Amino acid sequence: MVKHKLMKYLVLCMMIAGPGLLEGQEYYSQSNEENESKWHIGGTVLANFGRSINMFEISPSVGYFVFKRRVLLGVSAYYTYYSYNNYMDNYEYTSRSHYLGTGVFSRYYFRSDKHTFINYFYLHGEFELLTIVDNYKDSNDYKSDNNTNYTNVLAGIGYEQKLGKRLSLSFTLLVSLMPKDKSTYTNPIFRMGFEF
User: Fold this and answer.
1) How far apart are CA 34 and CA 45, in angstroms?
2) Domain ranges of the chain
3) pLDDT, tens only, 18-54
4) What CATH architecture is 2-195?
5) Who has the most CB within 10 Å: 7, 78, 129, 141?
6) Element (DSSP H or E) covering residue 37
7) Predicted structure pTM score
8) Among 128, 130, 123, which Cα is nearest to 100's?
9) Distance of alpha carbon 107 from its chain centroid, rounded?
10) Does residue 183 contact residue 177 with C-beta atoms inside 8 Å?
């Protein structure tokens, strides 16, 4: 089921990115550097609402380019709300989770003055602090509240697809460098977001 959803997601991403890859992009040059802002604003917004499962996520990020726009240093914040309602015969339970976090990240862009798609690939490293607040309640009046703190270290590679002069769509493939039992992620991690 998860592999099927991931495949749908990858096909959608390729449909969005495909035309730009075939047509080419405005390549990076020194003249482009003078016209572009050194500030980088990005993030994602996700939502999924259903009968049993509801999820909403927002994760803004802000960064600043240094070293001739080759290195991006930034900060990010995360908030995810997840709820699960299960109804069986005479038993009902509800689980709600809030993921709150902040992090710092860096990217190294493979820039050159030559016209090549390699200019839009980047290496990505990230360190994040995350708190998960879980609330559980069932029809037998059992309640449980838990707070758990996590530290995550992520690394990977990404690609930025230009959609205009300042807008781009980014695709990032990451892996968690933390042991499996201490990470909130399952490898690999795929992210897609808009950036200005």
Assistant:
1) 30
2) 2-195
3) 444 333 334 344 445 555 678 989 888 888 888 788 8
4) Beta Barrel (2.40)
5) 78
6) none
7) 0.72
8) 130
9) 14
10) no
